[in-house]
Write a structure and sequence with these properties.
single chain; about 300 residues; alpha/beta; 8-stranded mixed beta sheet; 6 helices; 17 strands; about 20% helix
Length: about 300
């Protein structure tokens, strides 16, 4: 669509294989989802090689959309640059509505009819995650197929009213098996978690019979859990966040996870302790902690 600034607004998609619409992979929906776009760019690179080797199954098509919001990424804004609205809260879209509604409608028109849909998603709180598959419980979710990615966790959550405008939710209602993948990071590139995520997607494509590419990593026997099971740890004081433990690490009850320091004299305002034994599922990664904000989420063992 036309734009009053710089170039026209375009969304680019990359097709692989021929035949029925089998798998759609959507990358950055927001302007700070650098890791998500990077993963899709590397997938495009790998799928180009796989297709050239004749290893995409006949009658199967894959679509990869690396970015749905290049304008916001260009100016380092998370949401739509003009009115700060979120494209991922506008589905299934409305082609005569506001700008982000029209963008969502155009995207969704292309994404309808796929058997499987994979979205590279990000969390609303900045931080590091254990890479995992997330699903909304709509009654159409497929836990068995979610485990085919071989990521450490598969999480499910009962959708709230505002979740009904997400791509994942609407994909499911339109008969697409939808999965949101959280790739560890958001606003910067981290190679170990991006490699793990790329391998998981290629592993999934192999297991559903779309490709014949050999993935060298074995993958995990995914642990299924409800998001309500996670223990949220909040900061009781504000200050400089000095992280001791990161995502993916095992901790025991009473272990020090982080220290919140006074920004004027560096005295310890709070020593953040693990309330139980478990795995750090999420860890805050910004230099400052605000009072009452979630800074860790732990999966209890």
């Amino acid at each position: 669509m036309s734009s009053p600034y710089r170039d026209e607004f375009r969304i680019n998609g990359y097709w692989f294989g021929e035949g029925e619409k089998t798998v759609a992979i959507v990358g950055a929906m927001r302007g700070d989802e650098i890791q998500q776009q990077y993963i899709c760019a590397r997938l495009i690179q790998r799928l180009t090689e796989i297709e050239a080797e004749g290893k995409i199954a006949q009658g199967k098509r894959i679509l990869v959309i690396p970015s749905c919001n290049p304008f916001s990424m260009n100016v380092a804004r998370r949401f739509w640059t003009m009115d700060n609205t979120d494209i991922n809260r506008m589905f299934p879209g409305y082609d005569k509505g506001e700008t982000t509604q029209r963008i969502a409608a155009a995207i969704f028109k292309c994404l309808e009819g796929f058997e499987f849909g994979i979205q590279m998603a990000s969390f609303y709180i900045p931080g590091d995650f254990v890479p995992h598959v997330r699903m909304l419980k709509t009654g159409y979710e497929d836990i068995t197929d979610a485990r085919l990615f071989g990521l450490p966790f598969v999480t499910t959550r009962i959708p709230l009213p505002y979740d009904t405008t997400l791509l994942n939710y609407n994909w499911q209602l339109w008969n697409t098996k939808a999965f949101s993948i959280y790739a560890g990071q958001t606003n910067h590139v981290e190679h170990s978690t991006s490699d793990q995520t790329i391998d998981s997607i290629l592993r999934f494509l192999n297991k559903i019979g779309v490709s014949r590419y050999e993935v060298r990593s074995i993958g995990y026997e995914s642990i299924l859990m409800e998001e309500e099971e996670l223990i949220n740890i909040r900061a009781h004081r504000a200050g400089i966040f000095y992280r001791v433990v990161g995502a993916g690490q095992n901790v025991y009850k009473g272990d020090t996870l982080a220290r919140i320091l006074d920004p004027y004299d560096c005295s310890v305002r709070e020593e953040v302790k693990a309330p139980d034994t478990g795995v750090v599922f999420f860890a805050h990664n910004r230099p400052l902690a605000l009072e009452h904000n979630v800074i860790y989420r732990i999966q209890k063992l």
